[in-house]
UniProtKB/TrEMBL annotation:
Organism annotation: Paenibacillus sedimenti
Alphabetical keyword list: ATP-binding, Cell membrane, Kinase, Membrane, Nucleotide-binding, Phosphoprotein, Transferase, Transmembrane, Transmembrane helix, Two-component regulatory system
Protein name: histidine kinase
GO MF term (any one): phosphorelay sensor kinase activity
Reaction catalysed by this enzyme: ATP + protein L-histidine = ADP + protein N-phospho-L-histidine
EC number(s) on file: 2.7.13.3
């Protein structure tokens, strides 16, 4: 991302390549996304339509299968010997019942177990693939079973329940009755395995991760190929199926943070609810593969387009490069340029305006040269004004000599300090070293101590390493003078002023702090606001305002002046400047 931003901030050629490449990439991604969405929707619609037909056919086959089992359990009614046997207690009758159950059991491979119960003697006959021989149990009470009550109340005298064993599908119960008085004569229970059901469900699941569920009209689970789906999850799905109240339908469902397409179909005869869950990710796999193919093709197209853009951008920016070289020559001082691009486009128009600008610059240089000549003449005339400073120095020197002759050392020191201060103030140069500024401060303090005596106490704590750092001339004097004017002159007690400096490789911080009366928060805000205004409303802050303006003009945004003060605790002024040392030139910076 950083590299792209650098290219956008770089040459026009790079911008064209980046912008057009991003546009093409966006188009490729958008087309791939739309193609993926369209493919997904079409694939989902086709999948749903196809599966609805298959599920309907599966349910029809399941109904047909149950109908065959229904007919199978009714077939013993056609055997008069068996019908006589179930209402007889003779030994031969038991033999006939056993023959009937064996014939029924071995006639179908999908039967796992078969039982016949005779209410007349409460006897149950059972034959299962898990046992070798047929078993017989007396005093068996079937009438209390829930499935028996359901079958007895059913118009067809039958019921179905899920098998209790994992390898078994369902148990089909049939009550054979006396047609005249509806009295139960026998109960036939057939337990079916998954042999026929697997054949019916053979074409139903063709995707990885699909889940099948088969339920009766009471939402009782008869079959599921995935035990990970819990009863509560099936219950929630079936509740939504019941809400739709249709023979078939579909919806998207979330199970364990995975999204599934849930389809269902309800059979017409036995009201079987067949539910199929297909992972959306698996459903969209083909569309996802097509999406990646589109992206690969799109990337190839993107590379081709970038190559085309490079050639086109070179053709567009070629003349701009020539124009840029002309500007560089102008920057080097070559004003003998008179080349104009042919054409009527923007570049040709820009070159004509550029030539006009070069002519104008030449005229301005000539005017500037004339101004410089006039300025030089003015400086020569200004030399005459230095006669008065020299006269003043000579006069001060004479007074100092007279003080020495008469052994008045205090006057001699004051006169020498005044002369040095005057010479320091009017000499050329915007910046001085910290060391030179401190020499001036010492002379300034000689004069101020003559005025205030022991009331003025000044301590200077500046390391020797900072002495060569350049600062604006008169910086420390203005800060010291501000402290004297607003602290010492406002009170009769002595004050303590401390001049300090902190510095590192980049910054110099000057502190001038006093223990004077200080100022309240309102007054402090007024002074701070006054320094940031273009003009002063308070006359007393002219010195600080002047200093603040100078350092801003010289150092720009790198320079800072802060002031902190509290009533009765004094004032602390700090100035932070970027470090320049002697031998380095300080240029003014726009602010």
């Amino acid at each position: 991302m950083e590299r792209i931003l650098r290219m956008l901030n770089g040459r026009l050629r790079s911008k064209l390549i980046v912008v057009f490449s991003l546009i093409v990439a966006l188009i490729v991604i958008l087309l791939s996304y739309l193609s993926y969405r369209q493919s997904s929707l079409m694939n989902e619609e086709n999948f749903i339509a196809s599966n609805q037909k298959i599920m309907k056919l599966v349910n029809q086959n399941l109904d047909n299968y149950i109908s065959k089992i229904d007919e199978f359990t009714l077939s013993p009614r056609k055997d008069s010997v068996f019908m006589d046997a179930i209402i007889s207690n003779e030994y031969l009758a038991q033999f006939n019942i056993q023959n009937q159950i064996k014939n029924m059991f071995y006639s179908r491979e999908d039967i796992e177990e078969i039982t016949i119960y005779t209410p007349i003697n409460h006897t149950q006959y059972r034959l299962s693939r898990s046992t070798v021989n047929l078993t017989q149990q007396s005093d068996y009470q079937t009438e209390q079973e829930a499935w028996y009550k359901e079958a007895a109340g059913s118009p067809k005298f039958r019921s179905m329940e899920p098998a209790s064993q994992s390898q078994q599908f369902l148990v089909f119960h049939r009550i054979l009755i006396n047609i005249a008085d509806k009295r139960p004569l026998a109960v036939i229970s057939v337990t079916l395995n998954y042999r026929e059901l697997n054949r019916i469900f053979g074409d139903l699941s063709d995707k990885s991760g699909e889940v099948l569920g088969l339920f009766n009209y009471e939402n009782q689970l008869f079959y599921s190929n995935n035990d990970d789906v819990t009863d509560s999850q099936w219950k929630g799905l079936l509740a939504r199926v019941d809400e739709q109240a249709g023979e078939a339908g579909y919806s998207e469902q979330s199970i364990e943070r995975s999204l599934f397409l849930a389809q269902y179909n309800i059979s017409g005869q036995n009201k079987w609810k067949l539910v199929k869950l297909t992972p959306i990710a698996e459903l969209n796999k083909a569309a996802a593969n097509a999406r990646w193919i589109n992206l690969v093709v799109g990337c190839g197209f993107l590379v081709f387009f970038i190559i085309v853009v490079i050639f086109v951008s070179n053709a567009i920016t070629g003349r701009l490069k020539d124009f840029s070289r002309r500007i560089e020559q102008l920057g080097e001082g070559n004003f003998e340029l008179d080349y104009e691009f042919k054409g009527r486009d923007e570049i040709a128009h820009l070159s004509r305006k550029f030539n006009q600008m070069v002519v104008r610059i030449n005229d301005l240089i000539a005017e500037r040269y004339e101004i410089k000549l006039n300025e030089r003449n003015a400086r020569l005339k200004a030399l005459e004004a230095q006669i008065n400073p020299h006269f003043l120095y000579n006069s001060l020197q004479a007074i100092s000599t007279e003080a020495i002759i008469h052994e008045v050392d205090s006057i001699q020191q004051m006169v020498d300090a005044l002369a040095s201060s005057l010479r320091y103030c009017i000499k050329d140069g915007e910046t001085v070293s910290v060391g030179h500024e401190l020499e001036h401060i010492q002379n300034y303090l000689v004069l101020q101590k003559a005025r205030f005596g022991e009331r003025l106490q000044v301590a200077i704590d500046i390391p020797a390493e900072a002495m060569a750092i350049l600062i604006p001339k008169m910086t420390l004097q203005i800060l010291l003078e501000n402290a004297i004017e607003h602290a010492l002159e406002q009170m009769s007690e002595a004050i303590y002023i401390e001049i300090m400096a902190d510095w590192d490789e980049q910054w110099l911080v000057l502190h001038v702090a006093d223990d004077g009366p200080g100022m309240n928060a309102k007054r402090l805000e007024e002074v701070r606001a006054g320094m940031n205004e273009n003009y002063l409303e308070v006359q007393e802050e002219i010195g600080l305002k002047n200093l603040y303006s100078r350092i801003k003009l010289m150092y720009g945004r790198d320079a800072h002046m802060t002031m902190n003060s509290q009533p009765g605790q004094g004032t602390d002024i700090q100035i932070r400047l970027p470090i320049r040392k002697e031998g380095q030139h300080v240029q003014s910076t726009d602010y």
